Amino acid sequence: MSQISRDDVAHLARLARLALTDAELDGFAGQLDAILTHVSTIQAVDVAGVEATDNPLKDVNVTRPDEIVPCLSQAEALAAAPRAEDGRFAVPQILGEGQ
């Protein structure tokens, strides 16, 4: 027995304002029915006594330690810049006034 009919797909397409051909309606009806059948199979699995798992991996947010290391000074960073003004990188304006 089909869980979703061609008419159901046509109704959903109208709600979503999708123009589907007859072939697309038939194809999507079959695909959606297959998806719903798989979901029903999964929902039928007995999970009583199975502990819920949100992430099977124990290591989360593995990052390196936050350590202070030498870095460029402001002058060194700006030395290779095409243009610098007032200790900052100068870039061309891309938006007009008032935007």
UniProtKB/TrEMBL annotation:
Pfam families reported for this sequence: GatC
Record organism: Mycolicibacter sinensis (strain JDM601) (Mycobacterium sinense)
InterPro entries named among the record's database cross-references: Asp/Glu-ADT_sf_sub_c, GatC
A GO molecular function held by the record: transferase activity
Keyword terms, alphabetized: ATP-binding, Ligase, Nucleotide-binding, Protein biosynthesis, Transferase
Protein's UniProt keywords contain Nucleotide-binding: yes
Taxonomic superkingdom: Bacteria
Family note: Belongs to the GatC family.
Record field: catalytic activity: L-glutamyl-tRNA(Gln) + L-glutamine + ATP + H2O = L-glutaminyl-tRNA(Gln) + L-glutamate + ADP + phosphate + H(+); L-aspartyl-tRNA(Asn) + L-glutamine + ATP + H2O = L-asparaginyl-tRNA(Asn) + L-glutamate + ADP + phosphate + 2 H(+)
EC number from the UniProt entry: 6.3.5.-
Quaternary structure annotation from Swiss-Prot or TrEMBL: Heterotrimer of A, B and C subunits.
HAMAP family: GatC
Role, per record: Allows the formation of correctly charged Asn-tRNA(Asn) or Gln-tRNA(Gln) through the transamidation of misacylated Asp-tRNA(Asn) or Glu-tRNA(Gln) in organisms which lack either or both of asparaginyl-tRNA or glutaminyl-tRNA synthetases. The reaction takes place in the presence of glutamine and ATP through an activated phospho-Asp-tRNA(Asn) or phospho-Glu-tRNA(Gln).
Gene Ontology biological process: glutaminyl-tRNAGln biosynthesis via transamidation; regulation of translational fidelity; translation
SUPFAM superfamilies xrefs: Glu-tRNAGln amidotransferase C subunit (SSF141000)
Protein name: Aspartyl/glutamyl-tRNA(Asn/Gln) amidotransferase subunit C
